[in-house]
Give the backbone structure.
Amino acid sequence: MIDVEQVRRDTPGCEGPVHLLACGSSLMPRCVVDAVVDHTRLEARIGGYEAEARQAAPLEGVYASVARHIGARPREIALMENATVAWRHAFYALPLRRGARVLTCEAEYAANYVAFLQRAKRDGLVVEVIPSDAAGALDLGELERRMGADVGLIAITWIPTNGGLVNPAAEVGRIARAHGTPYLLDACQAVGQMRIDVAELGCDFLSATGRKYLRGPRGTGFLYVAERWLEDLEPAMIDHFGAPWVARDRYALRDDARRFETWENSYALRAGLGAAVDYAERIGIDAIAERVRRLAGLARAQVAETRGIEVRDLGHERCGIVGVSVDHPDPRALVARMAEAGFVIGASSPSSTRLDAERRDLPVLLRIAPHYFNTEEEVERAVAHLGALV
Ligand SMILES: Cc1ncc(COP(=O)(O)O)c(C=O)c1O
């Protein structure tokens, strides 16, 4: 069981507005802030390169922490500035033939989908969206039916940005493995919210961010690249860190996932990411998952009894993001009104998840996304206040 009082004491932001936007950018615990500030102060005192050298061991430990958190090896991790950069590195590196089909889902995130469109235009890829089942999750039967030798990639979003859906990521992985098809999983909203085990997921690549459920600093993320790809996957862009210049006419790719990194980095933010992962591990990811779902369930139950607000979440299994539509001409204005009243919630525009939004004719949704540091009473007050505004 999580000691909620303790985690609230660990979180300076709990003294401020009620923060219910873990799916946007959550509140950092004090140890994360300290890690970032301490490293920055060290840089100020002795210089950036010297600080990096002095902290070499703990900075190296960040790879081990991230790897442990998702069941990977440190050499399979590249530290990145966000989830999008991580995802793009994998996607643009993949050598896909003209006419190769890329299978994705209706919940796919905008940043990923525009990249599909670019490679469709440039490289002749064919983007194919696997329909959802009656519950709104990726239809596994449809996926299986559409597999074939011309499928170059399965790339799906595990949890979408706009609500509580949890796509069957591990089952998709089993299908990908059975067909020997590369599988790129967007785990941006899953990391820090639930247990991630790359072996169980069967993915080749996984992208994630630091600032959401992991409670790390902004400007952090990571990419997992399965060992089997480290032999010869060529990044779309390289520098002399990922690919040292070993002879006048030759570079040699690093033999680990860091071939996707560049020479210059924010070591302060990396230290913060490491502290965030270690903190989540200390709390316990299963306890986090259980509490997040319970709080989200509370919010959903209360919304169901509130006139003018409707839960729009899909799927057989629901996570911590509560996506709601409101009977109001300007949902974003309600986000501002909630903020004035001391409640931080968010909005998600149809263009962030265009396929899903068009299929269901969704308006701008509001997102209520509690984390384990929130109390039941905070969630209840927030939903009650939203109800009073519509
Ligand atoms: C499902 C999903 N994928 C990817 C991203 C992009 O993450 P980042 O902003 O860290 O690049 C987001 C951000 O909201 C997201 O919700």
About this structure: The radius of gyration is 21 Å. The pocket of pyridoxal-5'-phosphate is lined by residues 82-84, 109, 111, 157, 160-161, 186, 188-189, 209, 221 (CB under 6 Å). The mean pLDDT is 98.
